[in-house]
């Protein structure tokens, strides 16, 4: 039969081209710039969307098939975990504080990524990137939901999860760090979004977030987190590739795009690295069994892998962001500076803190030979002494926050680790403070944006952080108690030290019961 | 030359995949971590459908790799027969 | 020592998250509830969007429709990502086996030439209409308010892409890649398709996301899907084109399923207030006549001299559906 012989099977590339390319068209009844109103305002010039190279060629039927398989596996593990009291298999309930930070700080970002990629998937005039963005959008709601579902089981037995994945990120001081990062990206245009989230976050930083952290979860017996983490990562390979294709595409389309793209890379690398301070702290301080230090993860996933990436982009004229020099100094400090901050403000945090024990301090000394013993060990030893005397140190003055990254001013000068780094900018007769040259540079480039920042400490002082109907003139009014109430932090349950917490007592009792039963 | 890598969840499905990658890429280096197996290689890494099929005794679609994939680094080129990761510099 | 963790009976401290306790009481919540309710941020946003400086990132004011509680617009199918993909995976498996059987056994060659030509002329260019449906629904996902409605709109957007790809595949099965070129040509300049392309392009420039929901999901799909997957499909089956019916089975099932979800949204929004009801009804009336005009030449190609009757039937069934939803149309 002639006809059949003609119809040879189409290859993957050919088939995918038919399945997507050509679906779109140049509109004529309505002008293209009305159909795609966000395509040009950022100054990026695209001449031929057809030149887009599809990184992964998934048609919807294949997408449904493979993703459903992942979902079946994932939920089977979660069901078994819930049925078999899997939460008692973790190394120590102290570990869960890292997971609390994950649910309240990362899962909401997955959700915003979902909405932002839906916007990108509507706004690019080319069918190739649009389909890829929409697939990422639907993947991201998957991540938000699988995380909530996995951690829902912990919420039933432990404190600090009950506020869920959206309430606290709008309110709590340290969560405004990741929140403002994503708000910043989503309030920009679609191309900047792709550099911010698609490239910087997904390609350059996501490995640092997920891979060491999930290995840590596995190491600490948290199979629920490992499962959603690695399952989410399987989509991440697609997302990373989208980010990389996108940047190459912009650079190949027009030489005028280079300075814009470079500016965004510089900005978003620094923004992202600041957010990752929280991850560094989780890795170095919050895992009872540690896989690698933050510094080691930084060296593998940023310095080596990021180095390879920037080598590859050099042919387009892209330079390694300037902030990397400072990062090389910072990698030995930031996790310690962050943990010291949380220790002092444990009363205003939705998870527990503790002082590293002797064995943990030795590990930190070994991993950070240049800095830990010199700058941080003495501080912990002093706090230990105070705690032993019943004078556990809490800092009751609210810290000043960086106008850009919104982290308290705790980072030190690149050339002097004993001196807090402050930078200042003037804008329209007001002074604005930033934590570093990187953040100052970002502020100075778009002051009209960053003056809008909703700085949690500032907002507390302005009386905006109490439950509706609070009367601050009432007798015995305790402003911090009201702030905690508004945060959904249950004072004495969710916050303060792990030592002596309900989580610690319950875990010991439940594990004890399990041990006696065999 | 820069290093490319690919990492999979450690499980029964990925064992033959990892085996065939190591066989097809003699310069590749295996790095086993908790729940994860990572393969690093200078320059490039090629995953061949046929090699995986030989080991699992059924037909294999390279898109199935995505089910257990954790992360990768390098530029991707994928067709029906092979999946390549490379830094071309 | 191996610990048998299963044997411990532990009383949970709570059953679910605060916002669900507030909404439904302290009891175990479903995965749909946990994954959908209040996971969109609501009050505090740092920066005004550069692309919409008068509003915040997630803003209730991007539509004329107003709801006291946007989470009233729940999805009766209770689709969260896992439930959705697993449902579609099952349907695609059935579709795949139909396509494979048709391709392997050359069943397309047994389709009477006249029917085949109708399928090529009517079904294949619809891939572009589906792409428009994808764009409208991704817009709603981006700019709508409240996850219970923005979430299923993304699933719907992806479904539209899937349907566009099944229609593409029908073209490839019937006439190879040339079928796609011919369909694109018809879409861009064929006289029968210009009213439809004009209509679809009009929907691409709407700002109000709920208006898009009405124009696209309720009205356009409400008239188009039954025309293709009900009336035309009956013709195909009756005249020896079962192979075509096999290839559109996914769409037939999908349009019946999604219509129930769309109905639930309209019904709830209309019942919320007289203002909503009036606005929704006005939109329906406007888009019903626009859609009917756009469909007329295509119905002509599909049904010949029965076209007017078919359209009249479709409109009256559609009107009955709207009346049940509480609209005055
Ligand atoms: Fe994600
Ligand atoms: Fe900063």
- In terms of structural class, how would the helical and strand content of chain B be classed? alpha+beta
Helices and strands of chain C, in order, run as HHHHHHHHHHHHH
Q: So, the CATH homologous superfamily of chain B? A: Monooxygenase component MmoB/DmpM
| Strand segment count of chain B | 7
Bound molecules: fe (ii) ion
Q: What is the molecular shape of chain C? A: globular
- Overall radius of gyration of chain C: 22 Å
Helix percentage range of chain C: 55-70%
Biggest beta sheet attributes of chain B: 4 strands, antiparallel
Give the DSSP E fraction of chain B (strand runs of 2 or more residues).
Answer: 35-45%
Query: Could you say what the CATH topology of chain B is called?
Result: Phenol Hydroxylase P2 Protein
Largest interface: A-C, 104 and 92 residues
Notable features of this structure?
heterotrimer, A: 518 residues, mainly alpha, Ribonucleotide Reductase, subunit A, two-stranded antiparallel sheet, 22 helices, globular, B: 89 residues, alpha+beta, Phenol Hydroxylase P2 Protein, 4-stranded antiparallel sheet, 3-stranded antiparallel sheet, 3 helices, 7 strands, 25% helix, binds fe (ii) ion
Describe the structure.
The complex is a heterotrimer of chains A (518), B (89) and C (329). In chain A, 60% of the residues lie in helices and 3% in strands. With 518 residues, chain A is mainly alpha-helical. In chain A, helix 6 (107-123) packs antiparallel against helix 7 (127-157) and helix 8 (176-187) packs antiparallel against helix 9. Chain B has helices at residues 15-24, 49-56, 65-68; strands at residues 3-9, 29-33, 36-42, 44-48, 69-73, 75-78, 82-86. In chain B, strand 6 (75-78) and strand 7 (82-86) form a beta hairpin. The radius of gyration of chain B is 12 Å and the shape is globular. The mean pLDDT of chain B is 92. Chain C is 69% helix and 0% strand. Chain C has helices spanning 18-24, 31-36, 81-105, 113-123, 126-143, 147-175, 177-189, 194-203, 209-238, 242-247, 249-272, 274-303, 307-324. Chain C is globular. Chain C is mainly alpha-helical and 329 residues long. Chains A and C meet through helix 1, helix 2, helix 4, helix 6 and helix 7 of A and helix 1, helix 2, helix 3, helix 5 and helix 6 of C. The structure holds fe (ii) ion (2 copies). One fe (ii) ion is lined by residues 274, 402, 404-405, 407, 434-436, 439 of chain A.
